[in-house]
Each structure stands twice: as C-alpha cells, then as structure tokens.
Amino acid sequence: MSTRPPRRVLVVGGSTAGSTALRELRRRGFDGRLTLLDPLDGTHRPPLSKAVLADAAHEASVLMDLGSLDVVRVPSAAASLDVDARVVTEVDGGEHGYDALLVATGGRARRLATAGQDGELVLRTVADARLLRERLAAAASVVVVGAGFLGLEVATAARRTAATVTVIDPEPPLVRLLGDHLATVLVGRATDYGITLRRSAVRLHGSPVRGVELDDGSVLEADVVVTCAGDVPETAWLEGSGVAAPQGVPVDASCRSRRDGVWAAGDVAAPVVDGVAVRRPLWANAVTQGRVAAASMLGQEVDAPVLDDYAWTEVAGTSLKVVGRLPCSGTPRVLEESADGGRLLAFGADTVAAVGLRRPVPRLRRALAELKASGA
C-alpha cells in the first residue's frame, strides 16, 4: 500500500461527505490539486424534507459553496473506475487520474414503481423537493409510503397543506430505528398532529400513480403518493473495480476501501464493524466520514470514529436529538424537563435523547459522558 502523500485528490460526489472531505483536506494543509466530479450541485439534504418543502426561499441555502477551496469542478457523472491505472472515466469519455480517490456518490431513492409505471414521487434532490412542494400545495390527500425519519418528516410537511395524510409501513413506525419508547413518543405526536399511520405492505396503484394497493387487496387513493422507502448506494459505476459490494463500499475505520488509493464516505460507504459491513445513511455519518477520509488520505491521525452516534429528526413540530446507542431499550430516566413538556432522557449510560427540548449536540455529548463516568 502506498504511503506517499497524494498530490492529486479526486472526489466523486459533492454533497455532505464529499464537500466535508474537500474542506477538511484544505484545513489540514493539502495544497495539491483537488478535483470534484459531480453532475449536480452538492446538496445539504436534511433541510429538503423540512425547510425546503415549506418554502421555496430556502432552496439556495442547501447548496454547497466550495468557492474558497480552489477546487476544479467537473459537472459530469462517473462511468467507471480503473483502480490499477488510478483513472476515473466520465460518462462522456473524459478521464481523471488521481493519487487518492474518495467515493462519495451517496445513494439514490429506493423506488417501488414497476416497469413502465409513471408518476412515483421521491425526495432526494432539490428538484425532487421543488416538485413535491408544488404537488402538496394542490393536494387534498397524501399517502406516504415508509414510516422512517424521512417519511414522517414528509408527512409533517404534507399535513400543513393537505386535508388528509396517511403514512403506511409494514413495520411498526420508527421502532427499528429508535426503540419502543422514543418511537411511541413521536408516533403519538404525529397522530395528534392529524397524521394517520397504517401497517401494511403496499404496491403503487395506477399509472400515473394515484394511490396504493394494501396487502388486504383494498386500494387507498390519493392526490399525491410519496415513496420514502430508504435509499440504494450509488455503486453501478464501480462495477468490475473490486471496490463495491451489494451493501455499498466496505471501508475500515479510516474510510479506506479494500483497494489501494480508494476511500469512501457518506451514504455509499459501509464501515466494517465486527466483520460485518454496515451502511448507516445518516447526515452525521456523512460528516464524520468525510473528515476521517481526509485525514487518512494525508497520512494524518484519524481522531474521529467512522460511525457517529448522533441522529436527529423533527416530526409534527417535535424535535428529537439523540446521542448514543440506537435503538434504545428500557424505560428512560428524566434528566431535565421544560414547562412545555420537553424532556432530556437517559437510557442507562448508553443514550441521551432531547425530545421537544432544544439542546446543542455538544451539551448532549457531555451529558452522556457524565453518565458513563458515573456508571449510571
């Protein structure tokens, strides 16, 4: 494995992980050539399901600004990777050599539509958010398929404008992500907000899509149907390179892939934990992995974990910030409570959660560290 410091760094994908790595490389003193290959403007995605769905004025604020970093930006998509020659080829045939490559192509929205079935709506890009916002403004009924963070955030936005909003998922909403207690709290808030939650497998109905067919054979029609069923890592361009696996790009604790000179970060990366590649497509992981990859590329000390322990969402006007192990188990202890019902909760010494309570993440991390130190 080469240990010579790179002079040419190529980043494929310029959203959270890619842009974080670019900034971190310059912050750590890299003065070589930085090239970014991405057909779209990098996007800070969390606001898409919150501020951007609510107001078009927020669209510009989610675009990444890399103007001060001296980055050569190539507005094209990657088509293939030759790891032996250390060359990435664009879809139009252009080639880019590198000493170090960061794969940060993220994921694409998982779709449920069958071949030839039109009209499925998803939320992954600014264009997706713009279209969905316009459709929600004119909708009297909305169905959201998927009761994860994104699905309930979209349902919250839809409830502000639509007469009826139904979220459908074959699994109990949020339990797999958060555990029983926190899931129950947020589901209760969503229900109080007027969002209906149903358990069922679904098939999209009609073309263009105009509803969903449930597992009992009934059809629930709606003006807008949005699929929020997770994402799929963008690895097709890596076929034949030996870099990718079905679950994404396996990486070690330094975000190195299994091929020399190639790192990965963000939604496309699958850190190997206890021998198992685990892809956790959360914003906090994209940030920490972008930083880890930059340090590792330069041969500098990696001073952050490859997986962050922070997650957050906002459902039906209730914010949730969690630091520590997820999903949570057991009954929490109340560390703090506000007059309006917000709570700071501790699940043993493993997890701290702020529910409806605005607290900065460093404060939550300190609280968790104190619990661990006290053996609570």
UniProtKB/TrEMBL annotation:
Superkingdom per UniProt: Bacteria
Sorted UniProt keywords: FAD, Flavoprotein, Oxidoreductase
Gene3D superfamilies with a match to the protein in the record: FAD/NAD(P)-binding domain
UniProt entry tagged with the keyword Oxidoreductase: yes
GO molecular function: oxidoreductase activity, acting on NAD(P)H
Matches recorded under PANTHER family: APOPTOSIS-INDUCING FACTOR 1, RIESKE DOMAIN-CONTAINING PROTEIN-RELATED
Residues covered by the FAD/NAD(P)-binding domain: 8-290
Cofactors named for this entry: FAD
Gene Ontology CC: cytoplasm
Protein name in UniProt: FAD/NAD(P)-binding domain-containing protein
Pfam families: Pyr_redox_2
